[in-house]
Amino acid sequence: MSVAPAQFPPPVNPAEEFVTRPVDPEDERIEVGVAIVGGGPAGLACAIKMMQLLEDEAELTESLGEVPVAVIEKGKVAGAHLLSGANLRPSAMRELFPDLDPSDWPVYEEVTKDAVYLLTPKLAVPLKPPPPNFRNHGNYVTSIAKLGRFLGEKAEEAGVYLLTETAAERLLVEDRIVRGVRSGDKGRDRDGGELANFEPGSDVVAKATVLAEGTQGHLTGAAIDYFELEGLQPQRWELGVKEVWEVPKPLDRVIHTMGWPLRKSPKYNEFGGSFIYPMGEDKVSIGLVVGLDYTDATFSVHDALQELKTHPFVRRILDGGERVAWGAKTIPSGGYWALPRKVAVPGMVMCGDNAGMCNVSELKGIHYAMHAGMYAAEAIVEALKRDSVNFDAYDQRVRDSAIVEDLYRWRNVRQSFSKGFFFGGVIASGATVTRGRFPPGRWNQHEDSKEAVELGKAGAGYPKPDNKYTFDKLSSVFASGNATRDDAPNHIRIQRHVPREIAQAWASMCPAQVYEIPDEQLSNGASTVDLNITPSNCVQCGAITAKGGRLTPPEGGDGPLYQET
Fold first, then answer.
1. Contacts of 145 (CB under 8 A, 6+ apart)
2. What percent of the chain has pLDDT over 90?
3. Contacts of 527 by beta carbon, 8 Å cutoff, 6+ apart
4. Cα–Cα distances in Å, from 488 out to 168, 272, 538, 557?
5. Which structural domains are found in the chain, ordered by start?
6. What pTM does this model have?
């Protein structure tokens, strides 16, 4: 039997639950000039650029009040929730910090060598020359978690108020104009009761609001619903699971692989590949990225990464090493057709991964996010000088930028891989040669949650974890630095009484072992099961939102504490 997760939608209405009018009395509201939700590359680049522009705008700066620019970040520090296989294009860093040399950036090295391999179960066949979309010469290997900390420090040095451990829970809207956000409560127990350290949330009102939440942005989803900003096609997602290893031998090149352990048949829809990047002389990062439209309910990206590490080619790179970090995150992959109809509404703009500004064909998104953040700062300053909340100039800047140009060039490639590895490869080659003129038209795509799943056999082949070279999910959650308290309120919305296929899909998909089918229901072969949830395991990767549930903000400060991912 096959069944689609979308047939069992989560008990949530984003536009009603997560959009509200200001509720605090006026004298109790927190007033800031510009409220930026998300301390990632987009939000922090926006904040830094804003402060640079305000240096020459004394009158505007004064009008923005005591806190001209505030960044609201739900992690313990900037960068705590950031994860990416990161080959950074330097354009945004050079524009934002023209006086800094790359040696002062938080990067490991400039890329001088690339390699792409097609893997079979035993062989690694080099593709020469590497496909153009995988060439990284002149880019820089970085840790996006370290980049976030670096940008956070630069923002604070510039005078930005960085409000960490604070979740933005609701969007404040009056008369169809965004007025800011409301922060979430702190100090509630599992049932929502108030603990001794309870702190209620607050209205943070602003003249301009920037949503830069990153992948699967909670408020962005609510804003898209409320303002009817859905793109021409629904957004799609990949899930990436990544490890950082200390190794005895340095790696001298950036490596990408395709093929094994993913299955090539169209019926499985297993689209993706791996990356292995050098991180200085003594570390490498290795990750596997897979589209969330696969059809086998037993498929697990985390366990497929463990299987990848058993390949002789990969084992030689990691041999004698030790895993020192782990993490997981979704990546928007819907591309051009899934971009929101507009990325600006009165009082608010959206920038970065939450607005779909990621080119999965080239595995690039960080510099898009930073450029978008800078465009947002420029447009907001121009509008506020006119005492206006019309930020349409930002939308136009994005449409006229390399962000949209690049996404348009690869607009139909991701969809083609739903017809199989080889067909997708042909389409991708055609798009490369013609710079996007082929294939023409608009190819359809549907939400990942509408892809029916069935109980397959992927899960039967994964290696058993030895917790030295291959690892289980729980030890991996520990390696993420996750410190969510066990009695925190549940921030995950799903239907719990679901067909076994759906339950298995969620349990296998989740890299943090949040969802489990009770043993007795597994053993008796029940067709419908009652899923158990352990929300304190969650690393907020966002995969459940893509595959039929809904992730909402946890208490501020909860979740992973990524250091070098």
1. 79, 80, 82, 83, 562, 563, 564, 565
2. 91
3. 1, 499, 500
4. 17, 34, 11, 11
5. 31-99+145-183+197-231+344-409 (3.50.50.60), 107-142+235-335+450-551 (3.30.9.90), 413-446 (no CATH)
6. 0.97
